[in-house]
Amino acid sequence: MANNLDSKRVFARAIDPIHIGAGGYRLGLVDNTIIRDPATDVPKIPGSSIAGVAREYYTIYEMEKECTLTDEAEKRKHAEEKAKGIFGDENKKGKLRFYDGQIILFPVSSQQGTVWITTKELMEYWFNEAKSEGDNRINIPKKVSDEAYVVKGIKEDSSYLNLGWLLLETEKVDFDCSRCIALPKEIDSWAGKIVIISEKLFSHVVNDNLEIRTSVKIDPSTGAAEPGKLFTYEAISRGTVFGFEIGVDKDADVTEILNQVNPYFKFIGIGGMGTRGFGRLELFYDGKIDAINRDNSLSA
């Protein structure tokens, strides 16, 4: 069975803030919190959320391309049967298995502009198989302590760098080919300035720089705010780069499936607060999303 399985890595960039609600609140902070990894306290996108949205978007895609049927209920039934063959149901495993989306690069405001923070461990795990040339090659420090290690796009004469409220000394990473990784070109263009910090600081900096908004429920009959209906909620910032893995049966064409659902991720999105401008994601897989999907529309 294991010989028939493969693992694919997919990357995504948040075009809008992302809110995957945890159904609770953090005392003294916000009313509506987002899901976090219990081991690291870093926000994440659950694999079940990715799988559910991908399945629904694939179903919509199949409905829109089905020209032989005119009845919407029949179209839906026919499309759901096709989706069931790929994503499975309660009685049968699907050909794709989606795992949690991790934050790899997180945007933070600084005196150098927006910088993307990450950790040595994240970069080595997600990009150890990347192969590209030229400016995409970046150097990873051998060891990481409490400094900010500048690896891309920041002036070398800066002795300190603020990440939101936190001020850190900077360390230049000397070039060493044995510790180089190569970012895929798309991700290299998404994150212009990259800084590596320690794992123990990463979760704190991420959580302290999430987007927090305040909303109020409006009474449609009066057009005024309803008493006691003010609430706050948090979201993963626009520009965050995620990575998630997909377990794939070897007879499944994951590239074709991603090509079909990517336009819906870009226009409809994932998670809650969609009516407030949240949720859109741009997917990147193996360099093919650019050539195939960038000009796609929902009616393609």
UniProtKB/TrEMBL annotation:
NCBIfam families: cas_RAMP_Cmr4. The lineage of its organism: Bacteria, Thermotogati, Synergistota, Synergistia, Synergistales. It comes from Acetomicrobium thermoterrenum DSM 13490. Keywords: Antiviral defense. Residues 13-282 form the CRISPR type III-associated protein domain. GO terms for biological process: defense response to virus. The keyword Lipid metabolism does not apply. Coiled coil: none annotated. Pfam families: RAMPs. This is CRISPR-associated protein, Cmr4 family. InterPro entries: CRISPR-assoc_RAMP_Cmr4 (IPR013410), RAMP_III_fam (IPR005537).
